């Protein structure tokens, strides 16, 4: 059976170049990067090379790069770090309703600790209006955190515009760029951000390693206390092999994202067009123009997302109903409800996220098998009618 992996927003396979770069650090170069002997210093050299590779991807200084255990830690560190460093008596955060749970749940935890949070809404296309952010700012606002690209819809937020607004008011601005890295240009100066999160496993690197970019001189309270690693910003012995893998993945992303983006967008557009031609009562969720080149999110009214994922898996096709981290939950996706979808339509939606290994044959195969799978599930639905549709909320 053919196997087609269209879930690159959940995770990507390790690039062969990344594995090659990591292998020595999993074997003979096992040193602790803090040791002063030569075994340690060779490990240190690997970490520092990765730091310059990541800095190059982001247009940042090497000293502004802090390695973490992934995107989740980078988001937690940015948000808790800025809030913890602020000496204000009352603290307020502005974020959006469509953030990843790494951001949303950190904000919710801070609410329980007395911080107030505004979750700005998004348009039906899944995009934040900078005016809504401007209106949400109060004299107590200590941080604005907004994702660059959304993991479920791929929609891209007007980060530079909102960062300029934050800078005018001297409010630190953080962006979660986990889903835009390797897909869009990511220059911290052009974006105008103070903090930016990345994760290696979304850019063909290993799992369990990420980065927080911290603009020079920005006060940040550490999450962990321990040794003096990462210039006292992130205690813990460095994951040398993982960091080296992230560096190699960042270099590949910088070299290939433009050409790859065009190729992948053409395949994604074709997949979308052919599926929507062949499957009635289906449509696109989110803004068509403002999104990452690899993502499409489609609804198939009267076909439940979870059974669809399972039925497609039996045909060898891996897709997702939304954020991988929330699969298993029965609640419809918070992102799809935030753009105004009725819960039934949100539950009847699938995310297809293409990647480096996606071919035209993969797209042909999905277009061949998916219409029949949807039709079969619809036949089982007591609510299905060939003429009806699920209205927006
Ligand atoms: N932020 C976004 C937008 C994501 O898509 C993810 C992963 O799904 C994360 C953060 C979490 O990153 P990690 O898996 O490295 O903890």
Summarize the structure.
With 393 residues, the protein is α/β, with parallel strands linked by helices.
How big a fraction of the residues is strand?
A: 5-15%
Distance between the termini: 40 Å
Instruction: Give the overall shape, derived from the CA principal axes.
Output: globular
The tally of strands reads 12
**Element pattern in H and E:** EHHEHEHEHEHEHEEHEEHEHHEH
Strand order of the largest sheet: 2-8-7-6-5-3-4
Mean pLDDT: 95
- Low-pLDDT sequence parts: none
Q: What compounds are bound to the protein? A: pyridoxal-5'-phosphate
Helix % is 40-55%
By helix and strand content, what is the structural category? alpha/beta
Characterize the biggest β-sheet.
7 strands, mixed
Individual helix count: 12
Rg: 22 Å
